[in-house]
Amino acid sequence: MINLVPFTPVLLNTRNFRQTVSLCRASNLALLWREYQVQRSFKIHTRRSYRIPEICRSETRRKLRLPDPNIFSAKMRHLNECHSQLELVEETKLPAKIRPQNVTVAVEGNIGSGKSTLLKHFENLPYCEVVEEPLDQWTNLEGHNALGLLYENPERWSFSFNMYAQLTRIDMHLKPHTLPVKMLERSLFSTRYCFVQNDYMSKTINPFEFSVFSQWFDFLTSSGKANLDLIVYLRADPSTCYERLRKRSRKEEAVVPFSLIESLHKLHDEWLLEKKYPVPAPVLVLDANHDLDAMKEVYKVRSQEILCGYH
């Protein structure tokens, strides 16, 4: 008599779950093959007397030491039921520790609004990585200072710089997550809705150049590679931003006029507050007019909001 030990799914250990499933499947195949051999042997030895009474057939099975087919089939049904339950458990997956979802946060704001200060405040957290604007690329593109050329002669270089800036922005978006929270210093969207829009309105790029840039922007954003989970808008008065810009004394920004700061402030408000242009994610607005110590306290108090629940 074949002795079968039924499988019981509730006793499975999650550590060797897949090995157990494989064992169950292998056992099932072995039993099917054994059942075929038994049935074939039984048929051969009773071929000439299949009409004889059941008691005679039972005697034949006893003499041949064959298992009772009914008992064998019951064992097989039990094993198949266990196998089906294992398949269901495998399909729905056993409970496991769920890793937090990666999030991308864009820090937006005018020139001099305090974006770098915010990023430095969070850059050393164990679950946060910071992606700053690629100023080194903008100021040294194979020996050319693209940012300096833009500020010196915007009518000549606005389109060229913004096309290159768009390329570096998408590189920022495409950078793989190494930690759950990735914070970007500006995004592809502010390049389009604030800086390029300002250039178009001030006629430093013509309608043809604006259309070329816009179609590239639409292509890049429709790919789903520039998605954001949150926008943190550091909103500061144009006078505050201009004063900070003067204090930090970046060589390329020495010729930046106050009118540009005012125009960018208006465009950021139209985009993120008035929703004049598409907003790709929820917006968290922070008053950035305070001094450095006060802003650090704001970042500390509202860190969980800024980091999408991480703290």
TrEMBL record:
One of its GO terms (cellular component) is mitochondrion. SUPFAM superfamilies: P-loop containing nucleoside triphosphate hydrolases (SSF52540). Residues 106-299 form the Deoxynucleoside kinase domain. InterPro entries: Deoxyribonucleoside_kinase, DNK_dom, P-loop_NTPase. One of its GO terms (molecular function) is deoxynucleoside kinase activity. PANTHER family: DEOXYNUCLEOSIDE KINASE, THYMIDINE KINASE 2, MITOCHONDRIAL. It comes from Elysia crispata (lettuce slug). This is Deoxynucleoside kinase domain-containing protein.
